Amino acid sequence: MAIIQCPHCEKDIELEAGSSGLFDCPYCEEQFSWGNTPHSSTTRWFDLWLGFLIPSSTIFPGIPILLFIFEPQGLEVLIYLIVGIISNILTTLVLGLIGLRMQRYQLALGALFSPIASALTFYLYAETI
Ligand SMILES: [Zn+2]
């Protein structure tokens, strides 16, 4: 048994040890969540986009901004592209690890999509040249 406090009326409630989910307080009948409750769908979508957009931003608008600021010539452009791709992969790995650690798998999943989308973008871009 574990004794916790109701977040609404602050009375002590007995829960089975290790239990999690939504509970009704026997005193004030308010609902509260306890333990490793699954994240809401809003959080999941937010994580998915966050995981996708952060690494992607190193490619777009990251690379165009770098090119605009430093105006590299010829082969130098390639260096900026490589820097963008490497930071994309690194942020993907970092976000993936954070997502797995915090059990926010959508964060990791979103991060995984980013290099795939970037690779596709590069592929499509290369096709047009
Ligand atoms: Zn209560």
Strand order of the largest sheet: 1-2
* Helix-strand makeup class: alpha+beta
How many domain regions?
2
Rg measurement, Å: 23 Å
How is this structure best summarized?
This protein has 4 helices and 4 strands. Helix content is 60%, strand content 12%.
Can you give a write-up of this model?
The chain folds into two domains: 2-34, no CATH class; 41-128, no CATH class. It is an alpha+beta fold. It is rod-shaped and about 70 Å long. It is 60% helix and 12% strand. The chain has helices at 41-59, 62-70, 76-101, 105-128, and strands at residues 2-5, 12-15, 21-24, 31-34. Strands 1-2 form a two-stranded antiparallel ribbon. A two-stranded antiparallel ribbon has the order 3-4. It contains four helices and four strands. α1 (41-59) runs antiparallel to α3, α1 runs parallel beside α4 and α2 packs antiparallel against α3 (76-101). The model has no long low-confidence stretch (mean pLDDT 88). It binds zinc ion (ZN). Zinc ion is lined by residues 6, 8-9, 11, 25, 27-28, 30.
Write out key terms for the chains shown.
129 residues, alpha+beta, two-stranded antiparallel sheet, 4 helices, rod-shaped, binds zinc ion
Tell me the layout of helices and strands.
Blueprint: E1 2-5, E2 12-15, E3 21-24, E4 31-34, H1 41-59, H2 62-70, H3 76-101, H4 105-128
Antiparallel strand pairs: 1-2, 3-4
This protein binds zinc ion.
